Amino acid sequence: MKYSWVKNVCVIDSMHAFLQYLLLVPESESNNTFYFWGEGISPAVKSAYEGHYMTFDKKRKYGWFEILSEYPFLLKNNIHYWGQDHLPISKYIIRRHDFELLEDGTLNYTQYPWRYRKTLKRTIFALWEGPLCCLDIPYSGYEKNCSKINLTGLVDTGEVYSSNKLSVKSFQSLWDESDDAKKAYINRVFGVDEEFCSQLRQRKKILLTQPFSEDGFLTEDEKISIYSKVIEVIGGDDVVIKRHPREKTDYKKFFPNVSVFDLAIPMQLIMLNGIRFEEAYTIFSSAVFGFSYKIRIGFIGSQISHKLLKKFPNHTRDSYQGNGGNAEMIDLRLEGVCD
User: Fold this and answer.
1) What's the pTM?
2) What are the structural domains, with CATH classification, of the chain?
3) Angle of CA points 102, 208, 101, to nearest 5°
């Protein structure tokens, strides 16, 4: 029977969440998983799981019967569901079952009342989406059928979660609990080898970019203008640019004298392989919260662009919460310089 091997279903749209999933489950379970993946999962990773995934379009409106006709195993009772519950397709899959929540960066650590509070507007919108999905269900683990909330401790959860469903395990602790075979398997999935690690060890600084143009927040020219200014300030020597997994920008074209690596690898996996940088810079990537060792952080903040500041007023330099004592802040103030 087609798909008779499916024991788990995982719905995610980030390499961060995929790494967390691979660390949480045995290798055999990851191979018995059918993945509903968004564009946030790189083609290189997908190629290793042919026949074990479908790629969903976040902008498309799916129907429950459409999904069920293609993937009837979703009616089975012995499947374990995992994933990110804020994705549009999640309501058709994991939110119809008991499921375990996987982390979505700092979103899970911030209190947004609208994500767990019913409102007339949200109820009307849910009704418009279709009669089979008309329940105005909260997300980020606030659903009753969320059996477990898996976080990695990027920052303090504060009072965001007070439930006994919460489980906080850092990437480092999950890695330490894994045997050598599992670590080797995860490195193969993401394309990490000794040559790659050796190249990174030659750099002292890392710049974590973000998909501002891909997500429609800035034009490509505006994004390049921002990173040109950042590189001008921090200097291009000893810097490596780590492109976000969803970015399509060819940074080598714009910064030919700066080292760039384009592999879609979560920052956490780089650290787990023992690579250490002295300094890390970002506009406001949540990856900067994951450093588990002493490092100097240049958290620039959304105020570098009036467009970004308007869209992300809570991601300014002053909003940075630190790395639990592991980080020393670099006084890098760039405000509205790229508009």
Assistant:
1) 0.81
2) 8-176 (no CATH), 192-329 (3.40.50.11110)
3) 5
